[in-house]
Every structure is written in structure tokens, then in C-alpha cells.
Amino acid sequence: MSSTRLALLCAASLAWSTTASREARAEDVSSLLEILEENVVSGASRSAERASDAPAMSSVITGAQLKLFGIQRLAEALNFLASGVFAHYRMSTPEVGARGVALTRDANSHVLLVLDGMVMNEQGGGSVFLHDIPIEVVDHIEVILGPGSVLYGAQAMLGVINVVTKKATDHQGLHASLMLGASPPLDESGSIRAPAVESPGGENTVALSFGRGFTLLGQPAGIVAALDMHHFKGPHIRFPKQRIPDGPDGAPSVDLGSHAEPGAWGGPVEEQWFRRKTGAYLRLDVGDLSAAAQVTRSVWAAPFMDLYENRVGVYDDAHNDNTQSLVLGSVRYRARLSERIEGVARGYFGYSRLLRSRYVVGHDALVPHVPLGVIDPEQCPRGPSGPCRKESLLLSRWVGLELQAVVDWAGDGAFSTMAGVDGRLRTAAYEAVAFDDLTGKSYGSDPARTRWHGGGNRLEDEGALGAYVQQTLRPFRSISLNAGIRVDLDSRIPLEYVANAISPRAALIAEPDERISLKLIYSSAFRAPSFVELYTVSGRLLPNPDGLKPEKVSSLEAVSSFRTGAYSITAGGFASTWRDVIELQIVKAKAPSVSSYNNVPGIRNYGTNLGFEASFLERRLRVGLNSTFAVTRRRMSDQQIARNARFGAGDEVPITVAPQVYGNAHVSYEIGSGAVSLAAAYMGRRIADQAYYGGDPSNIAPRPEVPPQLELRAALTGALPWVKGAGYTLGGQYAFSPYEPYVVGPNQGQPRYLVERGPSADFALTNRLTLFAGIELHLDDSSAAPGQNPAAAAGPSSRATASRAPLGALP
To answer: What contacts 641, CB < 8 A, 6 or more positions away?
Structure first.
């Protein structure tokens, strides 16, 4: 047993021995283990508390589980191990949904991702990339379902994913790991083909990390540093060929380059499906002072053409890529101001740079009285002598300060108040430019010299200020109340809509005994319009002349949990209403088509979450099951109802992309110094993104949807014999369905009320099979070698468990 777990066991023993009701029930050590293994979360209330006391439904994924199943990416962890959430890959960066709701191509701007207290969502578009997480040093991941703006402010609408890294005492010494993966090619139907020498894909990860505890200025201190490199190269695939529409001169309207057949889109994909990421992470703790920093650089390319990802770039060319750089930093100081008052100050900063580049070979036809040098969204501007690169650059930087105080009025945690203010200054900017690939000359960054609104630039200095208070009260041992409210002022929100940025939450929690927890929760959240939605002018996109309201979601849920011995059962029901959802809608459908972001009526959503965990055979065998059943409908506007009445559309339509039935199951068994594990992730039938145009039914026939998806993941882990501190991982992942719910190619359809008959759809493909093998080396004599008792470690981690959490503040 490690020193950390031994210390935690001692703390749990003390709490166990001083609790009369538990003492009466505890007849053997299993009661103590039950206390020890209950999850502790900090993401719901921003203070450590038992999961049964938290004012939200949550699940915890431990770092040990990630190693046990050979998981290297956050999206895989969510799909195979978490409750209530799911992630789509769409052959690009993953996007997260929860409880049957997903906002197509929102770049995760409706979920808040937090790493050691640092919000990772960039401040220009609100996007966040799941691959930015340093998996190697993750202690545990808390998935908090439901609106969370009461303490976090904007964007926590679907929930909060709170990632907590290991302290130096839990990550001593030098750790190195290498994971290699291979995937066979796919044909046009998504079926697996026999691999050739040059055709398999691969997914490789190299990670190096270090942890050390020491004493500095008489204070206990520790440092954790990590470096990781991830490289995914998609297997060779083929898309069915689709005809390119002709232009006014009878020729194909777009030239897709030498990798495509003239006049057609589709065929082999060998270059334009990859993802590369390099990241570095540093954490330093000295007494009550804690500092963290994260730097990542990612480059990725998606191989398909649609209305968003790759509308104008040539077919299957590695130049059609996206590059993102992210720098985050945070310094936090916690001070005990008196016996009952604790204060926290946190300063933070961030910088994000996102560049989208598309390689174009076609040139504009000359248009009378239109000067050279203006930019057309589909072709190179007139004037360049060769191909051009169309680049869209989004920059954001921000700096902020948060002050927080926690008052424990009675000194026993039964009546406490948390209050805080969080202010930040931010700058966001964008520029859309075309470059001659041969001469480097740029075109189109001046909005006055554009055609079809093809380029532009904007820079805005902005500010935001939030104030919040949270009150917890335990009038009786079995009853507790948690209520809070937050008010946000944001330069992106007009004063008449400030009421939409008020976020209350109230929770009533009853614990008839130590095994049962019952919760009734009301919560709300908002999302301010992003800089991208308010100001971007590029290609076929115009800003909304009337401005945008902030989005709002309100949720009511009931959660019950039962824990006894080695069993845990959780069941919850939820109902939520979304209002003023911001969506990209077509303003002018006929060429040249123009779109704009608009507020739409909203979403109605209700359903249930179920969870089960158990362990057997002295906790060597562990099983888990999570499932979600949801009904989600998108409300149509009065205009949409009227113009689609002849099709019998009604006043609501199904939401796209999100499964309404989904879940996962996992089992692991410890065998000597190793373990074998199996996990399954299921998503029900999903309606494809282009089934509806901003709520209007599409003319794609039949309605595009993909069949249910079942993915299996198996892994074998253990210690390498005769090599001290070395462990191995072997495994594979297989997807039964080849499709993702995204329509690809030029056949994107049109609103049915404009053109009643349309094309059929082809879909994005998923990587069907990956076989992986890895090795890990740990150079430190004070800890067990990798692979030793992994199934036992796959339960709640030392930092994610405790009997009763102490007073705490910012996670």
C-alpha cells in the first residue's frame, strides 16, 4: 500500500471511529472500505465533498482506470467510462454532448473543461479541444452533469469536466511511456480492407513525466512536470464519388485539384486525415501556494467536404489543415484568515491562436467592373499567378483575477458561506486572408475589397465580471441544503439581456442513512455570444445586424443513490429547457448563399441516467454500467412552422447528431501483477447533421441517419518480468458501425421548402479497428512498478475518495 493510500486509510479510520451510526453498523472492515471508496468531487461546489453531498449528478474516472483500459484520450474516457456524456470524433476534433443534447459543430463551447482550476475554453469562440489534457499525470476526471454557471460563469450549460492532476507525492520519480497503434484501411462502405504496406493508419503516443516532493522555505513542496506527443494518421479510406455542380459557364464550379476526378468529389483519401499534438504541463505546490501552466500545439486535418470543414479546399491535400496553440497559466494562494474563515486568491492568464488554412487551385472568372484583388469565397482571387491559401486566423488572450472567501460559521461545516468575484479582461481578433502560394502576396483582408463578404478583420477589447455566493446548511444530520446565485456582466451581453446571465441553483439533499442519498436540484446556466458569432465576416457568413441574446438553460433533476458494501446504484431523472440557442442559419439559400448566426426558440429535453458499480472476489473483479435515455426536441419558429406545414413537420423536430439512448459497460479482473479489462460503449440511432437546415427539414432523401454504434475495447496490462519498474499494455478497439452522423461531400441538400427533391447522403467514416501495444517505465524505488495490482488501483483514487471532505475552496 502506498503512503498516500495509507494516510487516507488512517483519516477514514478516524472518521469511521468517531461516527456513532457507522460504528453501530460496522461489523467488519468492509464498512471501512465502503467509506474509503466513496468518490469525492470538487467540481460541483468548487470545494471537496462526497459525491453523495454534491449538488449535482457526477461520475469519476480515475487515472488508474485510464491505464487499465489503455486510454490515451479524454474522448475515449468519456465514451467508455463516464456517465451521461458522449463524444463524437467526426474525423476531426471530438465534440461532447450530454443527456441527449449536442450542438453540432459548437467546438465544445457548451461544456466547460477545467484543468486544476484553469478554464481551458479559449475566450474568442469559447472552444476547447479535448486532446489538450495531459493524460499521463491525471489523477481523476470528474464529470459533473447539468448546468453549472452558478460558480463557473458562462458556458457550463451541458456540464463541467473537471480534470485534477496528481500531486508530487502521488507521482514520484521519472515516468516514461510509449503507446503504438495500427489501423487497417477502409473501403467506400466503411468495411475493413486488407492492409497494404503504405495504407495502415497509426496512433502513437510518447509521454515523459516527473514528480518530486521536497521542502522549500520550511514548507512542504512538490513539482510535477509532463511532456507528451501524440500522432494520429488515419488509415487510407475511400469516399463514394459525387458530382460537382456546374457553374454558369457549364464547367464544374470548383476545381478540387489533382487528387480528385475532374467534376467529381470523392475517391481515395491518403493525406488529409491526421492529428498531431505536443503538450507540456507543469505544476508547483509550495505550502498554500499552487501554480500550474499548460502549453499545447496541435495540427489536424479532416478529409471530408461539407458546408463548414472544407468547403473550398482541394481534395485530399495535407495543406488543408488547422493549427491551434494554447498557453494557460494560473497562480493560487490559499490563506486561513481565522479559525473559521478561509480566503483564496487566484490569478490566471491565457493565449490561444487558431489558424484554419485551405489550399485552392481554381481562380475566379473575370467579372466586368469588379477590380482585381477582391476575394471570392469559392476560388482564388483574380490576380494571383498560382494556387492560393485561404486562411482564417482567430486570436484571443485574457487575464483575470478571482477572489473567494469561505466562512464556516459554526466551525463544524454544518453552516458555511462561499462568496467570490471573478473579473477578466480579454482581447479577441480575427482575420480572413487569401495568399498567392507562389508569390506570398495577400488579398482580401480589407472588408472594403471583398466580394460576397469573402474576407475581413476585427479586433475587440472586452471585459467580464461575475459575482457569486453559495450557502450550505445542514440543519439535521440527514438533511442538507445548497443554494447559490451568480450574476455576470459581460461586454458581449447588452444591458437589456443581463437578466439572462443570472444563474441560480438550489439543491435539497436527504441522507436517511449512510447508504442512501436523495437529491432534488434546480440549476441554470448561460452562454454569452462568442466573438466569432458576433463579429466574424468570412466567405458566406455575415454578422447578425440585430445582435444576439445570451443562451439560457434551466434544469430540474432528481437523483437517488444507494451504496452498500461493494455495490453502488445511482438513478436520476432530468428535464431541461434551452432558450435563445445561437445557431448558424441560412439567410439567403440561392447562390451565392449567405448565412448568419441567429437566436432560435430553443430545445426541450428530458430523460433519465442510470449507473451501477460493483466489485467481487475481494475487489479483484470490478464491473460498471452507465446508461442514458433521453427525449430531445428542437422547437421551430413561427416562420418555420408556416413554411413547412405542407410537409407535416409540426412545431418541433428531433435534434441532430445526439443519440437518445447511449451508455457504457466495463469489467476488469486482477490476475497476479496484471489485469484484463473489457469495455463497451453504445450509441443508438443518430440523425445526421444535415437532416435539418437550422430547424427546417432538408430535402435529402431519405432523411439522413446512421445506425446504432457499438464499440468494444479490450486491454491486458501487467508488469514486465525481470525489468524493475516496467509495465506493458496490449489491446484493441473495434467499432461495429462505420459511420458518424455527418453528411460529407457537395451533396449537402437544401431546405425542403425551397427545393422539395434532393440528393441522398454519404456519411463521415469512423476508424473501425485499432490494435495497440505500449510499455511504461517508472524509475523510483518508493512506488510500486507499473502493472502491479492495476485492477485494485482502478477503484476510486486516493485523492478522489475520503470519508468526509474537509473545508475547501477553489479546486
So the answer is: 649, 650, 651
